[in-house]
Write a sequence for this structure.
């Protein structure tokens, strides 16, 4: 049972919307501080891997002109409900093309760790670069090795009246892959149904991320530990990367 | 949903037998070292709260004449399968009466933490005292406060092909009660069924345990941290208590 993007993300969408969609709100202070502060009040923002859209809605509510993009149609179905009126695009981060119209782009909550291949990560960075105006800024957070060692070896569970979730996580330090086996029970019309899916993340080296950003044309890259904004537990090993498209880049 | 002894333990028995029954084997070295060493090779042993009987079988296999006792009929149903030929008694630790025939008694794997009332703990100790020969020894392990602080605030889950378990634990330091909400899914004849139960433990103060042992007549009480036998994680806050019925006690 190996992850087949994006079908596993479609299966995950209902549960993600219930339990993790709101969690991205805790990144708002970091996003405002690191990404938004120098941008115009009505800046155009690309929310890359917007998932179920709770953060997308919050940014839209702050007055930004937001476009959400995600590879999972089912995630976007929830995003349409959670962020009504916001432009949403169905495409994976590795394969989308938008004209250079955005002041800022962000990808929150370790979304980009779900890209398992270094070349595909570079492709995603290049796509974001192309979509940014000259001088545009790109903020994303990634789980680094400390996060996998801290959080990706164990189990946890949720039991609600009409559904339950079990996550069993492992991290393989040789392949630098983290696996989360997710089992979901949902009761509909009095019948319990089970679904199983696998989410996989790659743990990138900071040097590889910086190289990939450089290759895509980004400059002035800075890193910030999430623990500066979010108290532990929960922030260990999460790093924000901020990268800029040069002012004099070809539009 | 509050625990109603022993019905919740009956509901728990199938899962306990699958996932925790074998775990008690890791207490064998401590039991042999602390309890068995001075006893005759064919000593009579009372396995108090024997549960699904895996440890009972091991002790029987070592040549001891073992009697298992448990308050849950369903736990004992598994014990009959796991420890065939061993004498088993259906009674709670707080309410049983056996003549003084045992060289040793033990209650492993924090069973006695499931007794929620200090007076009932004293009653269990008195019953064990009465069942021991003069000079008999009683070994049990309890979760102390460190264990509740370490392990009883979080969730974990198990997902197997035909069943799944979710445990959500909390510890209330004011009442000194630990609660484990257990949700079990089992598939039989292609249909998933869910059951929910609550297990409750009390965190006793060492001074209260020593007082209760003294009241029951026990002497020469010694305590040993489980970490002396079992590597962390898993042993934190677990303490073995060894207590002796005096040689000159009235038989």
């Amino acid at each position: 049972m190996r992850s087949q993007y994006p079908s596993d993300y479609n299966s995950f969408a209902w549960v993600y919307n219930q339990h993790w969609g709101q969690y991205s709100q805790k990144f708002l202070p970091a996003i405002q501080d690191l990404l938004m502060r120098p941008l115009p009040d009505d800046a155009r923002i690309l929310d890359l891997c917007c998932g179920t859209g709770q953060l997308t809605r919050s940014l839209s509510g702050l007055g930004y002109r937001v476009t959400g993009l995600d590879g999972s149609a089912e995630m976007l179905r929830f995003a349409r409900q959670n962020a009504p009126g916001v432009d949403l695009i169905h495409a994976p981060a590795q394969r989308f093309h938008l004209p250079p119209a955005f002041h800022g782009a962000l990808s929150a909550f370790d979304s980009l760790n779900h890209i398992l291949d270094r070349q595909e990560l570079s492709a995603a960075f290049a796509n974001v670069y192309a979509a940014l105006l000259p001088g545009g800024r790109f903020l994303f957070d990634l789980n680094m090795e400390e996060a996998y060692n801290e959080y990706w070896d164990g189990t946890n569970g949720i039991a609600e009246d009409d559904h339950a979730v079990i996550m069993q996580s492992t991290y393989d330090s040789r392949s630098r892959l983290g696996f989360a086996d997710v089992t979901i029970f949902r009761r509909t019309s009095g019948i319990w149904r089970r679904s199983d899916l696998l989410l996989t993340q790659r743990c990138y080296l900071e040097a590889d991320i910086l190289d990939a950003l450089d290759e895509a044309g980004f400059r002035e890259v800075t890193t910030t530990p999430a623990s500066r904004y979010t108290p532990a537990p929960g922030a260990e090993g999460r790093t924000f990367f901020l990268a800029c498209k040069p002012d004099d880049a070809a539009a």
Q: What stands out?
A: DSSP finds seven helices and eleven strands in chain B.
